[in-house]
Amino acid sequence: MKPYKIDWSKKETETYVMLYASQNISVSKKTKRKLFVPELDKNDFKRICSEFSQDNDFQSLQKILHSIKIFDYSKTEILHLVDKLKSLCEACKHSSYADKIKLNALNKLLLN
Predict the structure, then answer these.
(1) pTM for the full model?
(2) CA 98, CA 96: separation in Å to the nearest integer?
(3) How many angstroms from the chain centroid is the CA of residue 28?
(4) What is the DSSP string of the chain?
(5) What is the Cα–Cα distance from 112 to 105, expressed in whole angstroms?
(6) Cα–Cα distance, 110 to 103 (Å, whole number)
């Protein structure tokens, strides 16, 4: 895996993961910000959104896996993050079967 230069906090990493998981769900950025990490500063959220919008799918996954490794997420922390992702999917009436498949794939990647 190519190392990426990431200057995120743990909360910003969670935001990036949530953005990745919900990219096809029709929810406003304001709503996403409130659902994901409400304590994250508005400017930091905009910066993470901007970076996310410039990354392709492969880059996003690499950054997520690299961040999880850098912050040495425990299995409990990963499960908590996955639970947040599931809650988001369940809360959005517009989530599709494809979103659920993506969530399951992300779940498997994070737990390995």
Answers:
(1) 0.81
(2) 5
(3) 16
(4) ---------HHHHHHHHHHHHTTTS---HHHHHHHH-TTS-HHHHHHHHHHHHHS-HHHHHHHHHHHHHHTT--HHHHHHHHHHHHHHHHH-TT--HHHHHHHHHHHHHHH-
(5) 11
(6) 10
In terms of phi and psi (left: phi > 0; alpha: psi -120 to 50; beta: otherwise), the region of 73 is beta
The pLDDT tens digits for 12-38 are: 998 898 888 877 666 666 776 677 667
> What is the spatial distance between Cα 112 and Cα 98, in angstroms, rounded to a whole number?
21
- Which residue shows structure tokens 């009436």? 93
Counted residue by residue, the chain has a size of 112
Q: Is 42 exposed, middle or buried (0-12, 13-18, 19+ CB in 10 A)?
A: exposed
Q: Tell me: pLDDT of 55 over 90.
A: yes
Q: Residue type for 102, please?
A: K
